[in-house]
Amino acid sequence: MGDLSDIFKPFVADTVTYDDNLFRRSSNVNAVMPSGFVKDDVMNQATVGSAINYTLGRQKFNLNMSVSDNRFVNNQSMDNVSTNDRAVWQWQLGRQLSGMLAMLLPAPWGGFTNTTFFGLDMITGNNPFANLNYTWHPRWKVRTGLSWQDFRHSASQRKILNQEYATALASVDYTTPSGNSTGLQYTFINGKYPNRELIADVPVDNKYRQHNISTLLTWNMTEKTRFNGNVGYTIRNYPDFSQRDFGGETFNLTLSWTPTPKTLLALSGWHQLASWPDVTTNYQTTKGFSLSPMWRPSPKLALTAKFSRQTLGYAVAIGIPRHDTILNGQVSLVYTPVTNAGITLGYQAGTRDTNRLLLDYAFNSGFSSVMLKF
User: Residue 350 in contact with residue 328, Cβ under 8 Å?
Assistant: First the structure.
């Protein structure tokens, strides 16, 4: 039987968004909208869901479920219902063994930022994963993990992007008496695309294997400054198409500064491989930085922002490599009048410059949302 922390928390939310370039179309005069579609739109997303948290001794069980009704004013053929479900068991055995078993079931609708597809495409994901932590010494910990990810597209034109991959990782971490930590991590990914890609009328198998070894660091530099991240080397091999092989340094670093109890500033930089499930059967190398300030003038009010710049390089089969430069900015005002209610107002803008014709874009978007928890 659970203790007093066992809770059932249903919620409802509604978000209204205006976007002046929903399909991320180029401003070039030749970028004509297909018949039946409108460039700008207002979308309403009504969501209901619940969170169930149950504690039994040292075991914690979490179940989160939500369903959203997404409606468009101008592009009504895009109306859809999306879901996002998650089940987690956080287990502990004695003082040394702990871990997690989980199942994630996202089913969102595919966006248009990185595709020229017009139409509704629902992406169904299946992501079971498990990890094990062994604290064999108060300052030493060994971690292992396994996961499986499977993404399926509903639109027949985009089933070529269906992908699945398995990930395994192992790491060892050391924590100092002052609370800093360092470690070494190895990650292996075995990925494949069930539907072969046609290149010059030749079917190509895009299966790949990826290896990464990284050093991990968390450093509390002062009471107000924290540095954490990883630096390593990544190798990705395509057994049937070696022209796409990659080998190089990768990193993800963040410096956080809390000058006062009401303010926070985070600066991040990265150079990584990305393989988004709704973009391409290849990978992208992404290099960039972001700046994320936050100011909380009162316990009920918070102002957040994020500004980022990144460059993307695409692994192409033939021809001139594609390169993008993406700028994004967002500001949000969050008001929490009571513990179980929140109101958010926000504005977002972005641009993409690219060496590919008709793939540049610029957009402006405003949104407001209300959430009630019961």
Answer: yes
Q: What is the reported pLDDT for 3?
A: 47
Kindly report the number of other CB atoms within 10 A of residue 200's CB atom: 7
| Cα–Cα distance list, 279 to 57, 112, 115, 117, 223 (Å) | 44, 9, 6, 10, 42
- How is 91-136 classified by DSSP, letter by letter? EEETTTEEEEEEEEEEEPBP-STT----S--BEEEEEEEEEEEEEE
Average pLDDT, the chain: 93
Q: Quote the CA–CA distance of 247 and 186 in Å, as a whole number.
A: 15
Sign, CA dihedral 99-168-106-39, equals positive
Structure tokens at 271: 């150079």
The domain ranges of the chain are 7-373
**Number of CB atoms found within 10 A of residue 56's CB:** 11
Question: Widest CA span of the chain, in angstroms?
Answer: 66
Report the C-alpha gap between 247 and 262 in whole angstroms.
42
Distance separating alpha carbons of residues 241 and 199, to the nearest angstrom: 11
31: which residues sit within 8 A by CB, 6+ positions away? 25, 358
Q: How far apart are CA 325 and CA 323, in angstroms?
A: 7
Which residue numbers in the chain have pLDDT < 50?
1-5
pTM > 0.85: yes or no: yes
Amino acid occupying residue 26: S
CB 45 within 8 A of CB 73: no
Strand blocks (E) in the chain? 7-19, 41-56, 59-72, 80-93, 97-107, 123-137, 140-153, 163-175, 181-192, 197-199, 202-204, 208-220, 225-237, 246-260, 263-274, 284-298, 301-314, 323-338, 341-354, 361-373
Fold entry, domain 7-373? Porin (2.40.160)
